[in-house]
From TrEMBL:
Protein name per its UniProtKB record: Immunoglobulin V-set domain-containing protein
Species this protein is from: Scyliorhinus torazame (Cloudy catshark)
Keyword DNA repair listed: no
Keywords assigned: Disulfide bond, Glycoprotein, Immunoglobulin domain, Membrane, Signal, Transmembrane, Transmembrane helix
Gene3D superfamilies cross-referenced by the UniProt entry: Immunoglobulins (2.60.40.10)
Principal localisation: membrane
Amino acid sequence: MVFPALSGPFKDRVVWNGELEKGNAAIILKNVTQSDNGTFSCAVHNPPDVSSEMPSTALTVTERELPFRLSVVMVLTILVIAPSLLVVTVLLLWMEKTFAVFTSSSKNTSIEAVEG
């Protein structure tokens, strides 16, 4: 294939990223897919220079992980904190109801303190 790719699987996905003045010939392959897996070779011909070495690059495309993944710590935290909050809330409501009964029953008592 000759750069730029005018047809084929890399059409409109290859961008030049080299610096010729520094002797760097590089390209970027955009929007890679699983079908792009493979070994790629690059040959740069710069007459009258002759080079027998053809460097290659192995490209391995993997699926992107989800940006948010529940870790073991997060799951354990949720499994410990959620029930704890529920228990504390139930206890507080029960205590409020119980002490409300005591305070209301103590106001209606028939016992009086008399000095004597």
